[in-house]
Amino acid sequence: MIVADRKSLDEILAMVEGDKKILLVGCKGCVTVCNTGGLKEVEILASSMKIARKKAGKEIDIDTHVLERQCDREYVEQISETVNDYDAVISMACGVGPQFLSEAYKEQKFYPAVNTTFFGGATEHGVWEERCAGCGTCGIHNFGGLCPIARCAKSLLHGPCGGSSNGNCEINKDTECIWDSIVRKKMEQGQLEDLLGVKGAKSWKTARDGGPRRSIREELVQGNI
Amino acid sequence: MRLTYPAEVKIIQVPCTGRVDIIHLLNAMEDGADGVYVAGCLEGECHYIEGNLKAKRKVKYVKKILEELGIESERVEMYNLSSAQGARFAEIANEMVDQIRQLGPTPIKNSNAA
Ligand code: SF4
Ligand code: SF4
User: What secondary structure does DSSP assign to B4-42, as a single string?
Assistant: First the structure.
C-alpha cells in the first residue's frame, strides 16, 4: 500500500488560516489501512482543528466526508454538489487524492493533510516499512525476493557496499543492510551462485527517471471485459 | 455505604472502557468540558481482557493532541479501580475535580456546553 504520515496540526492549521468553512475529505483506501486518513483520523483532525480555533477565539465550521477512494473519478464525483460550498478543502488521502480533486474541481483550493512517503507494509502494529520503489521493471526474484532498489540506500545490484556492518546499513544502525539479508538468504538456500552473474545495466526508463508514467490497458480502454 | 462525589462530575456509562474512543474524549473537550477522565477496571482485570489497556493508550494519545494544541494534558486522565471500590471512586472524583480546579476553566471558548 501507499504509506503516509499526517502533517503536524500547526502546519495544517497554518495552511487554512484564513478559511472559515472547511471540508475535510478522507479516503477508505491505503491511508485508512496505515491509520493516517481514514474515518477515525478525519474525525480526530476535525475535532482537533475545532478545539484549536475555539481556543484562539476564531470561527470555524468543518464538515467531514470519507470517500471510498480519492484516486478514482467516480468516487471524487460524489462530492460535486457540495465541494464549492467551502472556503477550502483538506484531503487526508495520499498525494494522488488532492490532485484528483484539484483536477475535478477547478474552482476549489485543496490542501494535503498528509505527507506521502513510500510503498510498503506494516511489519508490526504501528510500524510501516518501505518495500518497493516502483521502478517499473520488477526483478526481485534475482535477489531472493528482497528488493535492493527500494531497500538498499544506494540501490546496488551486485552485492553490498563497504558500509555494510553486522547486518546494518552505514546510513543508520537501525536500517537493515538488505544486501546482507539477500546474501544470507541465498546462502541458507544453497543458491549463492545465483548472485554471481553480472547483470546488464538496469534501464531506469521505466522508473521515475523516464518522466511521469502512464499505464494503458487497451482491452479496458475499449470497454468492459 | 453512602458516599458523595462532586456534583461537577457527569458520568457517562460504557460497557467497558475499551468502548471509549479518542474522538469521544476530544468531543467532550471540544464541547467545553474542563476535563475528562476514564475510570476503568484494574489493570489485568478487564472482563474483555484488554479494554482498559486500550483506553489507557487512547488517553495517552489524547494527552499528546492536547499538548500539540497548547492545552494542559492533565485535563484528560485515566484511572483504574474495581467496581467494589466505592470509596476509591469518590476519592478519584475529588482528585480529578481538584486537579481541574487548579488548572481553571477550559481555554476552549465559544463552547456549546456550560
Ligand atoms: S524491483 Fe522495482 S518494482 Fe520490484 S520491488 Fe523493487 S522497486 Fe519495486
Ligand atoms: S550498507 Fe547495505 S543497504 Fe546500505 S548502502 Fe551499503 S549495501 Fe546498501
Answer: ---TT------SSGGG--HHHHHHHHHTT-S-EEEEEPP
Name the residue of chain B whose CA is nearest to A55's CA: B108
| Chain B residues with CB-CB distance to A10 below 8 A | 68
Nearest protein CA to atom 8 of ligand 2, as residue: A152
Work out the average pLDDT over A104-120: 98
For the segment A86-107, what is each residue's pLDDT rounded down to a tens digit? 999 999 999 999 999 999 999 9
Q: Specify if B8 maps to a domain.
A: no
Q: For residue A197, what is its C-alpha cell?
A: 552473474
Strands A21-27 and A61-67: parallel
CA A150/CA A206 separation, integer angstroms: 15
| Ligand 2 pocket: which of A129, A146, A152, A155 to mutate (most atoms within 8 A of CB) | A152
Residue with CA at minimum distance from ligand 2 atom 7: A160
Dihedral (CA of A23, A26, A27, A30) sign: positive
Task: Please give the CATH topology (third level) of the domain spanning A2-117.
Answer: Rossmann fold (3.40.50)
Residue A129 Cα to ligand 1 midpoint, Å, equals 14
**Beta carbons of B36 and B103 less than 8 angstroms apart:** no
- Predicted ipTM of the assembly: 0.91
User: Which domain does B59 fall in, by range?
Assistant: 17-104
How many CB atoms are closer than 10 A to CB B36? Answer: 21
Cα–Cα nearest to A29, from A75, A62, A81: A75
How close B5 gets to chain A, by Cα (Å)?
29
- pLDDT tens by residue, A151-197: 999 999 999 999 999 999 999 999 999 999 999 999 999 999 999 99
Specify the number of domains making up chain B.
Answer: 1
